[in-house]
Amino acid sequence: MLTFIGLGLYDLDDISLKGQNAIIEADAVFLESYTSILTGTSPAELEKRYGKPIKILKRQDVEQHPEPILDAAKTGKVAFLTGGDPMVSTTHADLRIRAKNLGIETRIIHGSSIVSAVCGLSGLQNYRFGKSCSIPYPAKNWFPRTPLDTILSNLIQNLHTLVYLDIQETAFMSVQEGIGILEQLITGDSEKISLYVGIARAGSENPVVAAGTSEKLKDVNFGPPLHILIVPATLHDIEQEYLTLFAGYAPA
Ligand SMILES: C[S@@+](CC[C@H](N)C(=O)[O-])C[C@H]1O[C@@H](n2cnc3c(N)ncnc32)[C@H](O)[C@@H]1O
């Protein structure tokens, strides 16, 4: 049995009781560490809480060489842990398909996800979001325009855009870095972005939520990771009031 378990957003206590019990009952536990992480805890604390070893997986361990996970699930109970919800903005559908094709039983225990958390923190309505995008750290000769194109296409349709910020082994992109990259991609007035919402540490006791122009958000101290960005479309009245009250938005 292969059980996909969402750990939720921030620390050890975000997991559901069902998820907790599945880890307690598991013969082997794997933690996927590249699509999201819980910055309010650590793998060592997870091991301590459950009193069992947890094998940390990189992207290639899941996408290219998942055999150890699948072999363990053929004969025993395997818990596959992911930050957030295991099937939201991840590629783990592929692992579930592989397991099914091998005759391995699977199930999903859902977790709170950044995708729904941003709606509560910003007040932006979930049904008004268009396609989401990610900003990767630029590399030598690689500075993709895709995130800006997605945002502009959503704005034309009057839809909000959720912008995931890159996570690397030792670097977590900040709201300011993300905005800086988008502003470098903008080539003229027609591409200008007038409003951003930055969110830090959703799920923690002290998330930071701030709305404003790129200039205004430069001066906001968002604090430690993880961070995420939203580019809102035209605001509905309630959305505007919510951002004013909870994100320091000052309409022009
Ligand atoms: C690729 S998504 C994976 C989403 C995850 N499966 C979920 O359901 O929450 C990860 C990105 O979402 C954002 N993110 C995830 N958790 C966050 C949190 N607690 N606070 C702020 N941003 C977060 C970061 O930008 C991070 O790079």
TrEMBL record:
Record field: catalytic activity: 2-[(3S)-amino-3-carboxypropyl]-L-histidyl-[translation elongation factor 2] + 3 S-adenosyl-L-methionine = diphthine-[translation elongation factor 2] + 3 S-adenosyl-L-homocysteine + 3 H(+)
Domain Tetrapyrrole methylase: from-to ranges: 1-215
Gene Ontology biological-process entries: methylation; protein histidyl modification to diphthamide
Enzyme Commission numbers on file: 2.1.1.98
Residues bound to S-adenosyl-L-methionine: 9, 85, 88, 113-114, 165, 202, 227
Recorded family membership: Belongs to the diphthine synthase family.
Function: S-adenosyl-L-methionine-dependent methyltransferase that catalyzes the trimethylation of the amino group of the modified target histidine residue in translation elongation factor 2 (EF-2), to form an intermediate called diphthine. The three successive methylation reactions represent the second step of diphthamide biosynthesis.
InterPro entries linked: 4pyrrol_Mease, 4pyrrol_Methylase_sf, 4pyrrole_Mease_sub1, 4pyrrole_Mease_sub2, Dphthn_synthase
Protein's pathway: Protein modification; peptidyl-diphthamide biosynthesis
Organism (species): Methanospirillum stamsii
One Pfam family it belongs to: TP_methylase
Keywords: Methyltransferase, S-adenosyl-L-methionine, Transferase
Protein name: Diphthine synthase
GO molecular function: diphthine synthase activity
Quaternary organization: Homodimer.
